[in-house]
Task: structure prediction
Amino acid sequence: MKILPIIFREYRMIVKKRSFLISTLLTPALMAALIFLPMLFTRMARGEKTIHILDYSRVVAEALVQDSRKNSPTLHLYPASTADTAFDTAIDNYRARILEKEVDGVLLIPRDVRSSRQVRYYGRNISDFETNRYLAEAVGAVITRHILDEQKIDPDVIRDATRAIELDTFKVKHEGVSRSSSGMDYAMSMVMLTILFSIIMAYGQLIMRGVLEEKSSRIVEILISSTRATTVFSGKILGIGLAGLTQVALWIIIGAIFILQSSIPVSQGIRAFFTLSLAGWFALFFVLGYFIFAILFSIVGAAVNTDEEAQQFAAPITWLLVIPFILGIMVTQSPDSVPVIIASLIPLFSPTLMFMRISVSMPPLAQVLSSVALSLATIWFLAWLGAKIFRTGLLMYGKKPSLREILRWARYR
Amino acid sequence: MLELDNLVKDFDTKRAVDRVSFSLQRGQILGLLGPNGAGKTTTIRMIMNIIAPDSGEIRIMGERFSETLKDRIGYLPEERGLYRKMTIRENLDFFGRLKGMDKKKITSRGDELLREFDLIRHRERRMEELSKGMSQKLQFIISILHSPDLLILDEPFSGLDPVNIEKVKDCILEQKRHNVSIIFSTHLMAYAEKIVDTVVMIHQGHKVLDGSLSFIRAQHGRRLARIVYDGDGAFVTNLDYVHAVSDYGREMEIELASDDHRQRLLRDLVTHLDIHHFEMSDPSLHSVFLRKAEIKSLDDLEVGGRE
Result:
């Protein structure tokens, strides 16, 4: 079993590297930061604001100030005297005060607000969505109350009559029924696709460069004089491949601990989404997709002579990886349509698309198994082809191979 | 032990190896000689089954090349390669296991060889921290670590200083004493002369010479006179039995048409010159090669004919 030392060596060379440890720990930290920092920032960014109200309707300002004291303590609203000045003059007067930061803005409520339902806000910063939304809603609420008051209708009656309907979605699966928010399926499939994409990009390139490096260092002459080229080639892919899977496994463990520990709504959704069998399918299709693309990259490494050439040939593979992202929307909308079925059986896309279909609604088992079988056959074929090209490509010196030559190598002996 | 029969290999535009045949007996050292680009490495790569010959046959221990044979062959490629990020010990472990050795054997035999080559104290250092000479030595150690029956060394002395060339040479002879059959290629014929039993010379893909060292020497006779002198030696060139002269002013190398003229030359020399030193010496492999190569390139001139 000469493949074992090769697998072991490749695996250890990567796992021992400091960059492996760093990326293993840093990636989850970064992901968490991406989720939580925007939340944190919006909360922090909502600073104190002083806004003057120019109320020409004379019915809004007072109630608005009272409401705000209760509902939005960071907003300081003050009714300003309109003193019979015209709009334009009033705003002109305020311009200097706003620019000198004496006040942050002016809310202008026209006389006919009740019919026009339009108010204006003048301020230095007009893209603070939180404040904008609050002001609009708050003015609306005051006007509604004012109208109801006039008509002598109890606000509670209206509140009761106009309550919104909430649509709860429940997912029906073989294991039973579970509550799940729509969009979760799609999001989770995309997350899986993203993980697969990034890990393949990182490790595919690593495998590609590893094979290329082996060529330039000429160690390969000793390797293939000690064992079969196929053994060297598959050992290399398995070794680097397992290192990549180790990293994913560590991420999943870190992620799982985090999700089980935390109580944020997202984690509840993920918990509802992931059943044991889905996790199994995830693992299976992840490994299949991973190795298909890893081998594709390693073939590039075996066929070219320089890093530049490698990048050039690697680009089309990247495109193959992007296609499932585009098809993904189609899959979630109609997972059982013919084009989706066909696409999910094409080996290069099937690992991602078939998993998406499974996560949306379980397709017929025959289709799932055929996509697994087709993927395995593809892996076998690509590994065979790769080993051939590896065997011959490694021993060619300084020649840039044409596609025709690569095919010729595949037939070589 | 090893037989090559009419090996041919064509590259894009030129024939790298043209109908080369030779054989190696058990426990013998065969020197594969020739200048750079003669086809030595191509021949060796074909023996190692790294590239396939276009025609001809290779038999190792009576068999065609196979996976099982790989563990019995040691190979030192011309273009050296070790894993730079790994230590000496890790490299030994890896390549040893690749030859089917178990860990214990790798350690015991490995340490023994490391001690012999003065590398034992660097055992835990990475290749990238070591000098080129050290990694050359380790590469050689790896080729003999698994005690092969057939050892193939492509330019084993390149990149080594004289002290280490001696060490490698001693080690090659040590292997021979253990009945290992060895092929080594070199363009440095002076080193080959000291250790080979058999010589195969290739030039431009052709075999130009094949035979035991003593046979080759006998065949080419003692026809070279080396003298140290004072005086005007210009007349020597005009002597009719002198074939070629290299005059360095105080020293001269005189190649005679045949060994029979030795006494005549000596007489002629002492009458005209003050002779400090006179000796007849074997032709060096180098001079034999030059003669052979030129015959070939001038196409079928009679043996011994020059210029």
Residues 345 and 370 of chain A are 7 Å apart (CA to CA). The mean pLDDT of chain A is 81. Chain A has two domains: 3-37+179-409, 48-161. Chain A touches chain B through 20 residues (CB under 8 Å).
